[in-house]
Here is the input.
Amino acid sequence: MPGAGVQGRADVTGRFISFEGIDGAGKSTHIEPLAEWLRSHGRTVRLTREPGGTDLAESLRALLLAQPMDALTETLLVFAARRDHLQRCILPALADGAVVLCDRFTDATFAYQGGGRGFDPTVLGQLEAWVQQGRQPDLTLWFDVAPDVAAARRAAARAPDRFEREDLGFFERVRAGYAERRDAQPQRFAVLDAGQPPERVWQAVLHAVQTKAEAEAWW
Ligand code: TYD
Here is the structure.
């Protein structure tokens, strides 16, 4: 079939689901199980992440997570990575009819660079429009959890990267940044209480995806 990928189906509408939340919210735990669940329902799934998802964007991710830089440099690198990721991974996968599951997308920029770093949200909106040309996730799963709970989980799990070394006040601002995005675009957000045990969070993930899929006749 012209235009169809090896496994993709050009006759099926691609769907774009992003996973968001502060570091330690537990979002990454649920991405692979959701991919399996979607595959068991006959969908082709593309798993990816931001910053990252292409060779170029993964190289930028390594710099972003390790190198000191100012907020403008950080923001421009995040959007440069996103542009490459959209052009060479996300948009082709959607055109092939895949469900794209993306671990973070632009809401993270509004939350971390906007809320956390205090970068001007008007400029972020301009960069967003320029880079994305109106493309937004169909559904955003926001794993919302109190920053002190997330900090305790991170301390038990891993060595911190440059963002994870920030203090509780930073993560309070990041959380507020997510809340502003949800308030501005409520139709695409599902807010999940990520302070619950993982099994309960997983049920909430499934409920959010099924509700959205039924409301918008995804399949
Ligand atoms: P994360 O996605 O949490 O990966 P891991 O689970 O391996 O830690 O890490 C990516 C970090 O990048 C996270 O701390 C948030 C940050 N980030 C931004 O600051 N802005 C962005 O636009 C994106 C996508 C991520």
